[in-house]
Amino acid sequence: MTTADETCFIPDPSQQRAFRDALGCFATGVTIVTTQTEHGPMGFTANSFAALSMDPPLVLWSPAKSSQRFAHFSGAKHYAIHVLANDQPDLIQRFIRGGLGFEAMSFAHNAEGVPLIPNTLARFECEQNATYEGGDHLIVVGRVLRCAMRDGAPLVFTKGQYGGFTAN
Description:
Radius of gyration: 17 Å
Structural class: mainly beta
Strand order of the largest sheet: 3-2-6-9-10-5-4
Strand content: 35-45%
Number of strands: 12
Order of helices and strands: HEEEEEHEHEEEEEE
CATH architecture: Roll
Low-confidence stretches: none
Largest sheet: 7 strands, antiparallel
Mean pLDDT: 91
Oligomer: single chain
Distance between the termini: 30 Å
CATH class: Mainly Beta
């Protein structure tokens, strides 16, 4: 069933923009995934993050295969997923293509050597549990070894924009 103010389409290659716009209607949080590589600490901005299981504690995220950093993250045995607070949009720019990354930034390492970004809203320190093909992305499932959180509001991404969340 459709309504007069609704656009219906089949998500084929000719409708890629429309499909992306429809997906953008689902608001997500914003994360930065970090790992230690032979080239030093590396981060990856991602909004493809979800809780998967409470027992055992599992989360998932999905890096794009087209990313220049894909090989570093698809094979990472350990990594950390940092959930950004609404006052941390500046971190997004550090970890996108061409960003400064960890350069001139204060950070710590966990017991597995993974770089940890301070003061994020939440953090999930993970060991890779499994990977699955997911079209142009890889689905990476991580077993959560440790997590941390603080008070604050999340940074939200929807319809191509970043912003905050206001509860009713």
